């Protein structure tokens, strides 16, 4: 009886699979195998195991693996970004690059290696990065008496593999800036950096990662501060309108700001485990690096002055943020604006005699969709005609997070229909008239983009709480299970008197940090630690 039920289940879905009996495997045995697979999937219920609720960190790793985004390499802490993941990064890069150029910035490229003495020019800067630096001390390898390669040719001065570029770029800016007429100098570079992370995690923290870093020089402090604010708003615009990731805009505390900066502005996003992710930073560096690197110019009145500088950057961490903002227990969810493929066309060919017709129809649909535009470019379509079972192919695309799947089979040819799945609705599928689908593809994709943002924004609001007592704050950030903490907490908006003593106490007691002083925050109150006056609320959270 048990086998009959499995066979029945296999028979039901066998029409979606191309079953080809061979000498050793009859059609019935194939159906039995298929039925067992169906039973297994029914028990599991989700494509990703464990689920977010069961084990969020492991869920994250499984989503990355199932979506084929990246994987670890033989080099500890370093990842290879695979084509689907790199396609997402390319779209991030291209969108931001246009935004940078629209605000007057130009791209350049600077050395990967920085002389150690350069890093020592700015005391706070070197202290902030010293523990993360990778150091090159030799120029070649030579075989010893046993044939083992050994470092040889010791360098006169060790070189630091770029952790950030303020000092090397400052050295070159000092050559380029001579007069007020050379200002503002607005430069960006797309590059890789190395920071020797102790606890690497794909996209979130790796020893080597990709990023952009903007560096500018201005004639006045006011101009540099305005640049710092402008670029923060560029990042926030990108996060919300491309990543569909709502963010808080604000300023870091003195303890959390970039080493060597006068002030650091940031955008903070809430992930589905309610932790904060710093998604971008913009730094007003004052004249600290100008004085350290000798960036001077002759002013309008002929007086020699030091320049005012900024730096700002985002990285492949944004992909990690996207994963943790939108993905579910079936895999990755990619916002349409950033998806390398926005529509995946999946031919359903259960019978060989209709295969050619189905494929020809799918090819025509691909061309029709390519003729439509959305978000300022043509719809990105992929026709997946691989020789795979229909269910396996469909679930691969679900796990990769493609916004829309379209299935076409023999019956669809007869009826002029397509079977459409929306990833933002958990893969919910429904039939549509083919012509209607083609004409509405722009609205469908823009609707998915908006829906993802709206859901993330609602989640952030739901888990943001105004707290006015220390006991309530500690309860908010204390899990029920200390050995295996469940998802808890969120963003707490509290009053704080700006005494760093309480900031340190939060770190030690709850592993909570002040994420930012929100932009425009001016509500005075009473510090919940000291009882002294507070100039305004800050946002505190556990974070990545």
Write a brief structural summary:
This protein is an alpha+beta fold. The strands form seven sheets. It has an eleven-stranded mixed sheet, with helices on both faces. It has a five-stranded mixed sheet with strand order 18-15-19-20-21, with helices on both faces. The protein has a three-stranded antiparallel sheet with strand order 4-6-5.
Characterise this structure.
With 544 residues, this protein is an alpha+beta fold. The protein folds into 4 domains: 2-45, no CATH class; 70-326, Bira Bifunctional Protein, Domain 2 (BirA Bifunctional Protein, domain 2), CATH 3.30.930; 343-452, Rossmann fold (3-Layer(aba) Sandwich), CATH 3.40.50; 463-541, Translation Initiation Factor IF3 (2-Layer Sandwich). Helix content is 37%, strand content 26%. The chain is built from 17 helices and 27 strands. It has an 11-stranded mixed sheet, sandwiched between helices. Strands 18-15-19-20-21 form a 5-stranded mixed sheet, sandwiched between helices. Strands 4-6-5 form a 3-stranded antiparallel sheet. Strand 22 (464-466), helix 16 (470-476) and strand 23 form a beta-alpha-beta unit. It is globular. The protein starts with a helix and ends with a strand.
Number of helices: 17
Give the total of beta strands.
27
By helix and strand content, what is the structural category? alpha+beta
The CATH topology of the largest domain corresponds to BirA Bifunctional Protein, domain 2
Top-tier CATH class of the largest domain: Alpha Beta
When the domains are counted, the total is: 4
Give a quick account of the main beta sheet: strands, pairing sense, barrel closure: 11 strands, mixed
Which regions are unreliable across 5 or more consecutive residues at pLDDT < 50? 1-25
Query: Helical proportion?
Result: 25-40%
Mean pLDDT across the residues is 92
Main sheet strand line-up? 3-7-8-14-11-10-9-24-27-23-22
CATH homologous superfamily (4th level) name of the largest domain: Bira Bifunctional Protein, Domain 2
Tell me the CATH architecture of the largest domain: 2-Layer Sandwich
The dominant shape is: globular
Task: Estimate what percentage of residues fall within beta strands.
Answer: 25-35%
Radius of gyration: 27 Å
Task: Please give the alpha-carbon distance between the first and last residues.
Answer: 52 Å
